[in-house]
Amino acid sequence: MCGIVGLFIKDKALEPRLGELTAQMLATMCERGPDSAGFAVYGAPEDGKAKLTVQSANADQDFAGLDAALSKTLGVPVEFERKSTHAVLTVPADKAEAARAAIKAGHPGVRIMSAGETIEIYKEVGWPTDVSEQFHLKEMSGSHAIGHTRMATESAVTTMGAHPFSTGSDQCLVHNGSLSNHNSLKRKLKHDGMTFETENDSEVAAAYLTWRMNQGMNLGQALEKSLDDLDGFFTFVVGTKNGFGVIRDPIACKPAVMAETDQYVAFGSEYRALAGLPGIDKAKIWEPEPATVYFWER
Amino acid sequence: MRTIDLAVTPLRELNSELHRQSDGTNEAEWEILNPRGQHAVAVGVDAPIKVAVRGPVGYYGGGMNKKATITIHGSAGPGVAENMMSGSVVVKGDASQYAGATGRGGLLVIEGNAASRCGISMKGIDIVVRGNIGHMSAFMAQSGHLVVLGDAGDALGDSIYEAKLFVRGSVKSLGADCIEKEMRPEHHAQLATLLDKAGIKDVKTSEFKRYGSARKLYNFNIDNADAY
């Protein structure tokens, strides 16, 4: 089943409420995905800085001295802010790739959830409202956020199998559905240098879009291409640093409803997810058409 | 009139109250407030009562209805009026996928658009949609009528049996074994009755085309045996 929520803010006055509104939307989708939950929040960028969100199953042990070790390897100061099993590491933007490599090489227990100028991804196994409280989603602010509640079908219920998946800088994808050609597509993407953390089909979709965007496409064009290359059931909601996209496969049996006002664009697997948004009574509400790309940028 | 506010009353309580009603009940009019997209609102009613739902409902709104007149003043999620037996369900907004699925009787009116698979496997229900319907509508539709004032999406009436489809706008494509058929006087009369029941007065029956089964898939064709 799975539940998806997404909120893309158009009116800056609403940005401080991004986390609160996303948490409230996510809470309505618990029954659709009781296994695990996750969310990506696009916060304010800091000039010349990049953020890596990392996670560990043994956070006390793995996070102890992580910033100092990285700082030593990279030769620059590293800011560290822990949030439960996750932590956000802030480094100079030109050191983001080196930081990623250093973590992979020297800290095997630390998993990288996301990297970029604005994105932070938090995800864990458990009841969705517990997950959102664990990471204080309510208190976060930013320009857009995408959340997911998972009922697993294609791969194991683990932290890494939870959504969103991030396969490129400031990019993320959540998926409701199941892909049938992910194995062959994965081989092709691996051949072109893409790397994978899990056996999850949705990660392949995320990597596919990253691969297309690396070729110079924007998110909208990459989504358009995915209709030719991905086989299976999907409703995707995708985020980039300044973009927010939605697409459904041509059969479109995975539910989706959208709302738009002057203040925001919102996505929900069901209307319940949208019911608490400000001005919903006057919002334009519609069901996204099958095989049609919806894409907003700011 | 009984008013039930779903912001304070649990859905289960509402539905059991509705199930307690029967023929000749004194509580003939009901108003439901704040449905906020909840699932299964006013499902399984079996009494000639009037129910007004003030706001959008989620999955299966008014499902399995028998005898009641249910009006949803908002949009409806997937499976509105699913398996309706009799009575009517009116949706003032849009309906999501598989509206009126497997319905055996009664009238479903959707004043906005309906998404994909509208009237899938319908078995006697009448469905009138003022707007458009999505792809794969009336898939394996067995009996009853589907009237669409707007356009129909891809694969209308795929593998249809004996349901009758009337579409006023364009049909993106017809499904397997579904063909356009002649509008004879009895079809004009039938359509006029349906439009009248749905309270639609601004269109003429001559603006519609009729679609139905070519009856080529009814029996297994032995010449196709090699394909299996």
Can you give a write-up of this model?
The complex is a heterodimer of chains A (about 300) and B (about 230). Chain A folds into two domains: about 5-45 and about 125-295, 4-Layer Sandwich (Glutamine Phosphoribosylpyrophosphate, subunit 1, domain 1); about 45-115, 2-Layer Sandwich (Alpha-Beta Plaits). In chain A, helix 6 packs across helix 7 and helix 7 (about 200-215) packs across helix 8 (about 220-230). Chain A has helices spanning about 20-25, 60-65, 65-75, 95-105, 130-135, 180-190, 200-215, 220-230; strands spanning about 5-10, 35-40, 50-55, 80-85, 85-90, 110-115, 120-125, 145-150, 170-180, 230-240, 245-250, 255-260, 265-270, 285, 295. Chain A is α+β, with helices and mostly antiparallel strands. Chain A is globular, with a radius of gyration of 18 Å. The model of chain A has no long low-confidence stretch (mean pLDDT about 95). Chain B is mainly β and about 230 residues long. Chain B has a single domain, classed as Glutamate synthase, alpha subunit, C-terminal domain (Pectate Lyase C-like, 3 Solenoid), CATH 2.160.20.60. In chain B, strands 1-2-3-4-5-6-7-8-9-11-10 form an eleven-stranded mixed beta sheet, covered by helices on one side. The longest helix of chain B is centred in the last third of the chain and has 13 residues, at about 185-195. At the A-B interface, loops of A face loops of B.
